[in-house]
Structure formats: C-alpha cells, structure tokens
Amino acid sequence: MNAKERRSAIVHLLQGAEKPVSASALAETFSVSRQVIVGDIALLRAGGADISATPRGYTTRRPAEGLVRQIACRHDTVQTQAELLAIVDQGCTVLDVIVEHPIYGQLTGPLQISCRYEVQQFMQRCAQSDAQLLSNLTDGIHLHTLACPDEAAFERVQTALHRLHILLDE
C-alpha cells in the first residue's frame, strides 16, 4: 500500500470508527511508525480532511445527534470533574472546550466526553500530565459545546451546573 492509499484508508477507518483511534493503533493497523501516521494526519488535515485530535485519538467530526448548545462556565481546576459529571449524567456529550486567548483569539480543544468512564479517563490524564487546562488561561472562564438528546436534557445540565455554582450567569 502506498502513502496515498494509506491516507485514504485512514480517513475511511476514522469515518467508520465509533470512538477516537490512537496514532499507535493506526500505526499498528497499517504497519508503519506512529510518526508516519502523525505526518499522514497532518497532510490529510492540510488537504481539508475534517480530522480532530482528541486526548484519546483521532476522529472525524460527525454531525451531533439531537441539540447542539453552548454553555459558559467558570470554575477552578478542582471543580472540573464535578462539571463534566454534571453534564454527562444528564445524557449530554461534552464536544469541546473553548477559551478566548488575548493573543491567539479563540482556542478550542476537542473533548468528546459522553460518560462517567470517559470523565474518569480525562481526569487521570490531567493528573498524570504537567499540562494545564485551557480554562486556566482565562481565570476559569470557558465555553463548552454540548450535544444533548433534547431540550430537557440541556435544561437539566444548566440546573446542575447552576447548583454547583459553575454556570456563568448572564
């Protein structure tokens, strides 16, 4: 398989995947190094492929089912887990986190967190990393894009975050 065929196969595999696929898993699938996959992804993105890098691997963006809404939040690092659990416990998925940086403008980090297990995995990665959350750049202020099954679920999220004093009131 040549590089062009491999890149086409990567896009096809990612489009059919239910969950993000790591560079290591792709490397094993195509019998190449992880660095070759990273290069392939960079070339695919430069060519217009809508591939996101999440903490759990690469994914193609699919239209979210149900409602897509944004919420504004403010909290410290300690409240991150409570925030994420309040969202996923209402049946919603945290698609991303967005902050406004004074130099770079809007910075977005894809998350794709939809259940308690994924919250736990995210929190473990945070604990094991020297990196800081994007919201630390903005004194805890950030947006989340959510995919919710219906308006009632979104309203439950707002209520839960309000109770935690995390929802940034207008």
From TrEMBL:
- Which residues are noted in the entry as Ni(2+)-binding? 75, 83, 142, 144
What the entry lists under PANTHER family is as follows: TRANSCRIPTION REPRESSOR NIAR-RELATED
- Gene3D superfamilies from the xrefs? 3H domain (3.30.1340.20), Winged helix-like DNA-binding domain superfamily/Winged helix DNA-binding domain (1.10.10.10)
Recall the GO molecular function terms of this protein's record: metal ion binding
Domain 3H, which positions?
71-167
- Check the record and name the Pfam families matching this protein: 3H, HTH_11
- Tell me which residues make up the Helix-turn-helix type domain: 6-58
Q: What name appears for this protein in its UniProt entry?
A: HTH domain-containing protein
Q: Give the highest taxon in the source lineage.
A: Bacteria
Metal-binding recorded as keyword: yes
User: What are the protein's UniProt keywords?
Assistant: Metal-binding, Nickel
User: Which InterPro entries has this protein been placed in?
Assistant: 3H_dom_sf, 3H_domain, HTH_11, NadR, WH-like_DNA-bd_sf, WH_DNA-bd_sf
